[in-house]
Amino acid sequence: MSRKPLIYVLVAVLAAAAITIGVVASRAQGSTATLPAIAPAQLLANMAATQQTTKSISGDVTWSNGLIPGSELSGLLSGGSGAAPSSLTGLLMGGSGRLWAQQGSGLRLESQGSGADFVVVAGRSGVWSYSSATDTATQYGLPAGARAGTSPSPVPTAMDPLTTITRTLQSFATTGTLSVSGQTSVAGRQSYLLTVTPTSSITTLGSLQVAVDGKTFVPLRVQVFARGDTTPTLSAGFTSVSYGSIVANLFTFSPPAGATVRHSALPTPQGLTGGMHSQSRPAAHGAPLTLAQARVKAAASGLVLTAPAPGSLASSLPFAGATVMPSTKGQGDTAILRYGTGFGSVVLVESQGAAGATANLQQTLAGLPHGLVGATTVAGVPGYELSTSLFNVVAWQQGKVTAVAAGMVPQATLRAFVAAV
Amino acid sequence: MKLLRRELTKLFAQKRSYVGWGGLLAVPLLITLAFYLNRNNHHHDNGPGGVISLAFHNGILMPLASVAMLSAFLLPLLAAMVGAYQLAGESETGTIKTWLMHSISRGGVLASKWGIAVIYVVIGLALVFVGGLAAGALAFGLHSQALLSGQTASVTHWLGLSLVAYLYVLVGVICVLSLALLFATVTNSSLSAAIGALVVFIVMNVLGAFSYFDFLKPYLFTSHMDAWQSLLSQPISWHPIVTGLITFAIYIAALMAVAWYLFRRKDILV
Fold first, then answer.
1. In order of start, what are the domains of chain A with their CATH numbers?
2. Coil, strand or helix: which one is A166?
């Protein structure tokens, strides 16, 4: 007697649950085009114009990094929700949290882990981070030229993600094909999918996809796909969003009583990605030099450049210009040689090894997650190799010169390049 | 109401009630003791982490640290046991037949059983709260404390937050309790019912831990258990808390409806 009804009830409950899940899932999948068609150029223009109209944006954000192996598992080990990062570089591992940004006020990012937060506040009180797990507040010194007093915004423009995304997209017009590849719903907002497909045939970058709010033209999600991948390698975006005004006190920070207070230099994007970033803005250092000019300029400070012989390189990686940067404090000259075009280019950075440069390099590499960095040999000297699905880096030390070759190209291509140096 | 009062008398007469409460009370005292004995060691980075390690220097955080530790296992375990025992235990001792011979509705019996189990958990949580606060105050004193997001909050503010967090955890634990009560209407063994509820609880936890099953997460009550922690960041994001409460309410209502349906038709022969 008691058996049968139980089975019926269980079946009914399971069926109801399955239907509910099915309906909700199919609704989430539904991405019918309800926005008017738009040309990529018009979409970019609207995005640029939105910076005058959209002053505030806030919401829940999530970001993931498929470049670092094992970050998927960290959530499992800590029982569901991952631990919060306790430093700026920890944010690179991926996570979720909340973001507030308001023009003229500042930016606040809160990364939430299990029972701990990591907060970054950039506003009139400077740039601060606070880790609740270690009860440590860190104040970051701004790089020269981006001080709070000199710019109209209290936040350096480099830290305004929305402007950065729009500007970066505009700069891709020459190295990739822009298209509006569809519409989707991001953070509950019907959005255009703006896709950049690189023109280079040798790059590991498959495409870059930005979801742009169809009404406000604010970029809500950025995804980077490696060539041949259908799941994004890098992804960051809102899961819920609001454009309402934000109370200003969210953008101020004062360290809580008893917290450890540290002062640190702000890690710039260049600092985090090494020479990778410099290829995108060659104009910053004047017109590029020829290889011969670079050799002469570098030799003046004692830096002997080694470069691949013109004939030994693949045709897809022709010499594309060089920059020699004068020595900064404690560091010798640095030469940046560029090869190839667009996303398929390789940069070779050579710098006069200051005392301890090799030790610094080794320390940086040792700090990276296990499995990312491997040992290799370049022209008989030991070197290091960092390999990910999106970019490859080889670093080695030749005499007093530290050389780093990097590019968004397959590992085999970069190895062939390095072998020619 | 009369049924409930009778149940209450039974609850306080049973030795097993005190064992459970004792275990609950021991946890905040042990956490405080461990922190107190380790107070001169400032390298506490290797501790359990999260809210628990925050309580290192401040007694005001002890109630939250305790409940964070308890809500993972001991609290659901006790809730499953007390929920299961209420019905199946009576079957085991044979007293349920005497019960049902009186002119009372079976729905009323079920409701009073559910009510008494909830009261048991409420008393347990109150013991943890008061015990943690008292032990914490004794060991470290009560001071204002920074929220997870870095703003400083007063002792009263923290007390309020802790109270809301406890209420939230209570509702979450009632899900396990209701699950155990449902199983207890099917089986006559309180042990089977309690274990059944715990198995479901653990399976849900495991499902929630794999990103492959992320699409299931919103529908599992276990993945909402820690949502109270969003109280600790300013401005408070109420969304996860409200979602969690709605999920809990749906689970409790559904489980109790099925339990009521089954219990009404159950043959009590033993």
1. 40-263 (2.50.20.10), 268-420 (3.40.1000)
2. helix
> pLDDT of A113-159, one tens digit each?
766 788 999 888 888 989 887 888 888 876 554 444 444 444 555 45
A72, A115, A250 ranked by CB distance to B229: nearest? A115
Instruction: Check if the beta carbon of residue A112 is closer than 8 Å to that of residue B255.
Output: no
User: Chain A residues contacting B, CB < 8 Å?
Assistant: 1-2, 5-6, 9, 13, 17, 20-21, 25, 60, 72, 75-76, 79-81, 83, 98, 110, 112-117, 119, 121, 130, 132-135, 137, 240, 250, 253, 255-259
Structure tokens of A359?
Answer: 């030790």
Q: Which helix (H) or strand (E) holds B63?
A: helix B62-70
Contact B67, B136 (CB under 8 A): no
Q: Determine the structural domain holding residue B8 and report its residue range.
A: 2-265
pLDDT digits (tens, 9 = 90+) for B96-132: 767 667 767 788 888 888 999 999 999 999 999 999 9
Q: Tell me the pLDDT tens digit for each residue of A65-102.
A: 887 655 444 433 333 344 556 666 667 777 888 999 88
Residues of chain B by 3-state class (helix, strand, coil), percent to 5: 80, 0, 20
What's the farthest any 2 CA atoms get from each other in chain B? 64
Q: B93 — contact with chain A (CB < 8 Å)?
A: no
Chain A residue with CA closest to B254: the answer is A13
Number of domains in chain B: 1
d(CA A239, CA B104): 51
Look at residue B233 and tell me if it is in a domain.
yes
Is residue B270 one of the residues assigned to a domain? Answer: no
